[in-house]
Amino acid sequence: MRTAVQLSGDAAPWPEAVDFAVEAERLGVDMVWVAEAWGADGPSVLGYLAARTERMILGSGILQLGVRSAAMMAQTALTLAKMSDNRFVLGLGASGPQVMEGLHGVPFAHPLGRMRETIDVIRQAFAGDRIAYQGRHLQLPLPGGEGKSLRLSLGANDQIPVYLATLSPKLLELTGEVADGWIGTSFVPEGSDEAYFSHLRAGAARAGRDLDQIDICQGAEVAFARDEAELTSMIEARRPGLAFSLGGMGSASSNFYNSAYGRQGFAEVAAESQRLWVSGDRAGAAAVVPDEMVLATTLIGTEDMVAERLGVWRGAGVDTVRLYPAGDSLDKRLHTLARALELIPD
What we know:
TIM Barrel, 15% strand, 49% helix, alpha/beta, 12 strands
């Protein structure tokens, strides 16, 4: 399995975040993904890391669909690939209605069609072609205006991989059809085939491809417990985060994380936690999350437990494991990361 870590520009003091990425590379980590939600933007961070790293692949995890034009996403990708000596991976995602409509004023409707058309335009730009597209959602050049079809002056680079962060069945099918990789989350390996891989395979088959041609990149927190008492404390501390995913990531009617967990055997828990969260009972929403759900969706426990779960992930089809090492200081997070790397299956 390949290994990856993830960071954002505002999750820690900036020098500490940079030191984490640089040391992760020294430890042998293959990739670093940079998140972009409602905090720091991703490309600024990636550009800085391009200058501070030498080998590690740099991924946007993720750039949000519709925040930038399709052509600007292509420009950003081509620029970062050039700055990093072709170490850049373009990760895209649809985000959700709260962020897109509430923060950016961009309609969230029709994410499937907008994603497909955006990738079409990006591929044109990567190929060095003049950008011309007449779709349902994107029209380039804009009809009735004075613009004309343009070719980006950065030059062609059709080797930039495109990964999609998707959760819903139709977008998973699109991922299998057109993407080089899948950035997954809300992952329960025991329920992943029906929830995720069946849809990825269907999309891949539609394009005459095999699932083995798609990098399955899946992430979770990793933490090591010394004994049963510490593990119990760890589980308790992680219930609120799962409750937020089930109830707060999206609206009451549009929460793709909730739906994904529901498809993986936790439908009743997901529905009840969301109901309590939406009603304002955040403590109650966390309390209904069972121990087995926390353990199923994370990599926490003794070294033997973590090693066993990593083996289960590998057996389920994960190619690249994205680690979120626990620790209340840089040194502790790096220590956790180093321990985890020793347990990664071949």
